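Minimal example, chain plus flavin-adenine dinucleotide.
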Amino acid sequence: MSKSDRELGMGRDISRRDFIQGTSLASLGLTLPAGVALGQGDPAAQGRYYPPTRTGLRGSHPGSFDAAHAIAREGLSFESAEPTGEHYDLVVVGGGLSGLATALYYQDLFGKNTRILILENHDDFGGHAKRNEFHQGGAMRLALGGVHNLEYTSFSPNAQAMMDRLGIDFEAIKAQTGFYYGEEGRGSPCTWFDAEHFREDVLLRDFSLAARDFLNNPEQVGRIPVSDQARDRLVRFSTLDTHIWPQLEWEQIEARLRAISYFDFLREHAGLDDECLDVFNNFSHGVEGWSVVNMSAYEAMDIGLPGWNLLGQGLESEEWDYPMVMFPDGNASVARLMVQQLIPTVSPGTTVENVSVADFDYEQLDRSKNQVRIRLNATAVRVKNITDGVQVNYWQDGRVLAVQARHAVLACYHSIIPHLCPEMPAAQKEAQQYQVKCPLLLTNVLLRDQAPLKRAGISVLRCPGRLHSRVLIWQGNTAGGYADGAWDTPGAVNLTFWGMIKEPPGELTLKERLRASRYQMLGMELADYEREVRQVLDQVWGPHGLDVKEDVLAVSVNRWPHGYSYYYTDLWDPDFEAGQYPHEVASQRFGNIAIANADALADAYTHAAIDVAARAVKELRSA
Ligand SMILES: Cc1cc2nc3c(=O)[nH]c(=O)nc-3n(C[C@H](O)[C@H](O)[C@H](O)COP(=O)(O)OP(=O)(O)OC[C@H]3O[C@@H](n4cnc5c(N)ncnc54)[C@H](O)[C@@H]3O)c2cc1C
């Protein structure tokens, strides 16, 4: 039975942890919980502006989206603005990887002496490439708050050239990464079926719902806590070795698999009922931006769910071999490398060898003497072509300010562009609003000590019933100079809870479901997320000595209501003519304004964000 808030340690004032960052504890009359120490290296503890160490609601943090929602949801107009008198060659809207790459490409094409302003509505640069840095409990602990890794096998020559320029050597980083999504850890993967969502609490070791663990494993499958009937059906499916369409060619099979939902496929051909199907529903959370219920049979089996055993492929599945190159803070270190090239004074001497642990001086980001300025907490609210250039109005600290430039690149979410730039052609605005990003959630929890985790012997936990569909121990990565990332470093350790909010049931389209999930995500309080992770910690690791009341040192909830770029699906998107895909129509240059962001390729990847930046800048040559 789950514990009361008090027993879970919820009474311990979470907002105090927010306060701790950047505020003198003595001045607040506070003391730290026993055993918690702010590391000497925490810049915020020294009173500096340093957002990576902020905790609480991160990702799209409170205050970051108010201005954007005022224009997009409430129809407010920010037509008039106070001129700052600043004039740039380029204004970039959005300081994510695409916006930062845009600035680098612009310097390449238009000259190192060009003046560039990057506007970013969050309190940190990097967009989804977000870093969570903890100093509670001793030495620095790093975690990613958004983008995980570089999917290097899909890189274009252009994206590869950007990596070379930043000094990123995939082989070198792979050699520093023992972390493999926890899959190689002792006793993992584990799957925890919780009594709140299933019939009882059951922790299955060396088991997941992926085909490679599920198939030919009747003993473990038979322990999934569902009704007797559902269990029998699941066991039968896990041992079914057949071919339902032996007469069809592969192309015909693929077409059929793409035309039917995974759940209908399993209903019809494996005899599974709704109770069985629900077991699989959140398997996709995080890896994809939506639940399995929305996926075609082909898409679901392509991410590793069982089903090929119905198509003559037998019960053996290939080992998981996902391309992984990552820094301990994910691609936030890639963003840091880009910023360091744009504004060298921000972190002099920093290279790929030490980027993850280097100090970054945020005071340097927006100095008038810089060639490139990054203005944080600044939301673009109006972008318009004017004679010989563009004007960009932005909202900051309750004021609407205006800057002018020769060019602008919109490296922000496409769905906001029609509100920034209403004079764009109607078809283009409609195409931009086709982009409904997927909401995602990454909650990092810093624990005082890893001993209970070691005792439990779980490196990755899958939770088919919970808000976060998986929990990963974030250790085993020493890239970017992060020596403390080694598997056996003693002391505090970070756990990453990864998932999304299950879309509501009912007769909704996929995009309506995503929007509903987003609203729910924004409506939830920090305490709701914190309670959820404390319950999981208590129930899974409590029996191994974790005291959830005492051992949780910090919680950072990275909400991404606008997460992965929407990508085309088998079941929910029509076929488009080449050149007429919404992302192609959406990202046409409009006068002196070009358009980037991963949305411009409808492809939620870092390499996509970089490739569209190169394309957008090239288009400005003829503007
Ligand atoms: C949780 C998560 C995990 C991911 N994992 C991976 C991964 O492992 N590998 C991978 O390749 N990709 C991953 N991605 C995809 C990720 O989107 C891309 O890799 C890439 O970071 C996108 O960069 P971007 O600059 O296009 O967009 P963003 O990172 O979204 O940057 C755009 C920025 O523009 C800002 N903005 C929006 N409107 C305005 C405005 N009006 N004014 C000012 N600023 C504005 C946004 O707030 C944002 O900061 C992940 C995404 C998420 C959310």
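Residues 66-73+87-125+375-434+578-598+608-620 form a domain with the FAD/NAD(P)-binding domain fold (CATH 3.50.50.60). The two ends are 64 Å apart (CA to CA).
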